[in-house]
Amino acid sequence: MRRALFAIVLALVSVLVAACGGGAAEQPRELVISAIPDQDPQKLQRLYGALSERLTRTLGVPVRYVPLTDYAASVTSYRRGDLDMVFFGGLTGVQARQQVPGSVPLAQRDVDERFRSVFIATTASGLAPATDVAGLREVGGRSLTFGSESSTSGRLMPQYFLDQAGVGPNSFRGPSGFSGSHDATIALVTSGAYEVGALNATVWDQRVAGGGVDTTKVREIFRTPTYHDYHWLARPDIDEQLGAGTTDRIRGALLALDPADPADKNILDLFGAGSFIPTQPANYDQVEQVGRSLGLVQ
To answer: Is 123 in the same domain as 102?
Structure first.
C-alpha cells in the first residue's frame, strides 16, 4: 500500500513540475517581423529572409519573417500582437499607430524621405509624358488601375495628385482597378488590361533596370512630387518581451547596415536603398492628412 501511495505522490509531483516548467529549457522569445505585401512574394521572401538572418546574428534573438496576404492583414496582425515589427507604407503605418498607441517608428530607407509614385501608360494609348501635376488631366477618360487600396505610393498619393489636377474618382473610363501590388500593376498595364497605372517609383525603376519591363508596350508618363513613405514600426512592448533596450538595439542594427559589406549591400539592394536613416512620427503628417481627406484614416 505504501508503495502504491508513494508512486501516486511521485506521479503528482512530476505532473506539477512539468506544468510549472521546472527543469525544462524555455523556448527563446522570437522577434516576429513582416511587411506589407507590395511586391512579388518570392522577392519579399528573399529580402526578409536575408534581413531576418542578419538581425538574428546582430541581436542574439531569433528573428522570424511572416508573409502576409494583404495590406489590411498587416495592420490587423500588428494590432493583435502577432507581429512585433512591420515594414509599413506611410498610410498603413499611420493606421497601425492609431490602433496601437505608443508604437515606435524606428527607421526609414534613405529613399523614403523623398519618395515618389509614377504613372505609367501603354504606348498604344498615345499618352505623352506630363511635365507637371496639371498634365495629369490627360489621364481623365482612360482606364486606370491603382495598386492596393491601402497603398501609399500605389493609391493614396497618386489619387491626391490626380485630385489636384482636377481628375476625380469618376473621371475614368470604367471604375478604377486595384491590382493588389506594384508588380501586378505593371503586368496589367503591359497587357493592355488598363491604359494607365500608378505605382511605387522605386519598384518601377528596379524592374526597368533589371529588364523586367517591356518598354515597347508600357512607359512612364509622370513622376510625382516627393513625400515620406515606407518605414519600420515597432510595437511598444518589445522591450518588455525581449529585454530593456531591445527596441534601440533593433534601430541601431537597421541604421548600421553597411553598403560596403557584401551581405548588407545585398539586403539594401533588395530594399532599393543605400541605407536606413532615422525617422519620426511627424514625417507622416502629410500622409495622415491626405488619408483623412479620402476617408482612409479615422
So the answer is: no
